[in-house]
Amino acid sequence: xxxxxxxxxxxxxxxxxxxxxxxxxxxxxxxxxxxxxxxxxxxxxxxxxxxxxxxxxxxxxxxxxxxxxxxxxxxxxxxxxxxxxxxxxxxxxxxxxxxxxxxxxxxxxxxxxxxxxxxxxxxxxxxxxxxxxxxxxxxxxxxxxxxxxxxxxxxxxxxxxxxx
Length: 164
Fold this sequence. Notes:
The chain is α+β, with helices and mostly antiparallel strands and about 160 residues long. The protein contains one helix and eight strands; from the N terminus they run αββββββββ. It has one helix at about 20-45; strands spanning about 70-80, 85-90, 95-105, 105-115, 120-130, 135-140, 145-150, 155-164. It is rod-shaped and about 115 Å long. The N and C termini lie far apart (about 95 Å). The model has no long low-confidence stretch (mean pLDDT about 80).
């Protein structure tokens, strides 16, 4: 099976591009023109004045100044008729401190350090060991920030406050 050339009716074979070739050549010309325009536009953008950029600036980044560290004097206090059990409080560096049992009145003073203006969390809890009232109090830098009481035997009292 082969391809048989079609000859014009006059019997002569036609030479040169046929009618379909013109369409192919026109399409090729469009592709070349679009490619050239793209290259020229891209070249003008890279050669022209640059627009301000927020991503590629070579300026050094702005680093905020480190916050000043401050110390807070914290006094945890328990007052009651008997003793306190399972005393738990937040010590320096947000560490948890515990005392199994202590006679009342009981207190613990700690220094808490943190960035100036940073919120600090303070907490004290204890269980009443017998009849009578058990009161907890948290004093930060001389000001009472939390005070609560429980009157039930074996009741739990909890003082807590975020200060910042």
